[in-house]
Amino acid sequence: MGLSESNPEHRAFFAAFIAELTRLNWVDGRNARIEQRWTDADLTRASSYAAECSPSSPTSFFATTPVTGALHKETSTVPIVFTLVSDPLGGGFVAGLPHPGGNITGFVHTDGALGGKWLTC
Q1: Which of 5, 47, 60, 74 sits 20 to 30 Å CA-CA off 104?
Q2: What would the mean pLDDT of 9-30 be, rounded to a whole number?
Q3: Confidence class of residue 46 from pLDDT cuts 50, 70 and 90?
Q4: pLDDT averaged over the chain?
Q5: What is the pLDDT of residue 40?
Q6: Which domain holds residue 45?
Q7: Is 27 helix (H, G, I), strand (E, B) or coil?
Q8: Least confident of 1-5, 23-27, 45-49
Q9: How far apart are CA 71 and CA 106, in angstroms?
């Protein structure tokens, strides 16, 4: 997570993610192993965690912006699912939005190309 563990909103976001996995019967310690790392938007920490996690051959990664970049440098085979990435195409994470290609895909909350069409006051 490129977020801060000390932020209650960020912890709630992660708790909601875990709750949904549990609802879908993916339970940590039973049929899934969920490890979390919080980088507090520190790129050095993100790179260190990515290097630490990649050799253990996880099934997949779930990541936010700075961590997606660090993981992208570490692996081209382990699936990476991102969220909170504003421009995955511009960041070089995916080949295209409709067909991301490679091992990275995810969720974009706002299409960056729409920014030029927004009205300003």
Answers
A1: 5
A2: 92
A3: confident
A4: 84
A5: 84
A6: 8-110
A7: coil
A8: 1-5
A9: 14
Q: Spell out a b/e string for 62-82, using b for 16 or more CB atoms within 10 Å of the CB, else e.
A: bbbbbbbbbbbebbeebebeb
Tokens at 108, concatenated: 């974009």
List CB contacts of 47: < 8 A, sequence separation 6 or more: 70, 73
Number of domains in the chain: 1
Could you list the beta-strand ranges (E) of the chain. 61-63, 80-82, 104-106
Residue 56 in domain: yes
Q: Is residue 48 part of a domain?
A: yes
Q: Token pair 């997606």 is at which residue? A: 68
> According to the model, what pLDDT value does residue 114 have?
60
Q: Confirm whether 115 is domain-assigned.
A: no
* E-only strand ranges, 15-70: 61-63
Residue 119 has pLDDT above 80, yes or no: no
Tokens of 107: 């969720």
- The reply to whether 1 falls in a domain is no
